[in-house]
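Deliverable D4.2, example record:
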Amino acid sequence: MTGMDVNTLSEIKTEFQYFYPVDARHSGRDLVPNHLTFFVLNHVAIFPEKDWPKEIVVNGSVLMNGSKMSKSMGNIIPLRKAIQDHGADPVRLAIIISAELLQDADFNIESVSGVQSRLESLYEECTKLEAGKIGNLEAEDRWILSKTQIMVSQVSAAVKKMRLREALHGILFAFESELGWYQKRAKAKNRRDISAILHQVMSTRILMLSPFAPHIAEEMWERLGHDGLVSKARWPESLEQNIDAASIQSEELLRSTVKDIAHILKVAKIAPQRIIMYTSNDTKSKVYYAILEKVMSGQTNMGVIMKELIADKDTSDVKKNPDFVQRTIKDILSEPADIKKARLESKIDEQDLLATEFPELASAEFGVDIQILSESDPDIYDPKDKARHARPFKPAILVE
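Output generated by the structure prediction step:
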């Protein structure tokens, strides 16, 4: 006998039956080998199965500069002080961007300062942009708007999978290289009419930033001239039909060509007087797209691809140039998925693109004139026999 009043025991039993079983026990992972293990064992030993816990949820840790936070180590920063010193949004973003959801967050002041600086830069950009009517789109306009659509799709997919670090990195940092290229292209053309395009792109970014940094996002939204709250605005929608496949691969060709020329100049350590580029002929182009289709369908074996090319009368001459096939396979495998997809969807005229868009860009980037030739041109100027090395989307380059 317990000596306890029956009514008291009845109340205890009623309360137990009301709260049990435990739906979820949340605790730190450091308690798995002791407390949480005995938590399970004790319930199994004392209670019937219907009263056993339904689940145990183990939380990760927030590290400080790679180490566990500890009073003895003196590396604890009270949350209130961190917010007072840096603001709620930078602290929140620094924690999110330090690791994915199922990983330990690694907090450090340097990352907070970096995020804070990025937010300040975005805010400053918002103050300079004005909404306006977007007129006829040029090549680089179609490209940046297409890349924005792709960013929306990628960030949305990451959010749905709770890959918040990936999503936030795409919004804050990864897209900066795209904007940098767009502004470089516009500057080379001496354009002064890109504010409306940039305003549209920035508005999309702030819409996606809002759930992560709600305070500063509202300020940015207002600076962009929008009415209402960004937190009440609809999440941007990515539409496949708004992605211009031709512009995606065209700009990638221009970017990669600039990079290749810069690499040649760096290695050769010369100041160029002029640059000549040679695009590949139609035969190589046919072989390229035949290989691209095979690679995209999953076939990457050089021997199998070579046999299939030789068996096709349109590409059978490739047997004279196996090195071209091998290099082309490597070229295709090294390209991003969206570029390969774009090239399957839409073919571009390399000669026409480079002749139209590259001279101004090359002049601004390298300070020299550039000449675009095709390796199939009769009597072309080719003193160093460079033209034969041209491949689709990899023009041969002669620097003099």
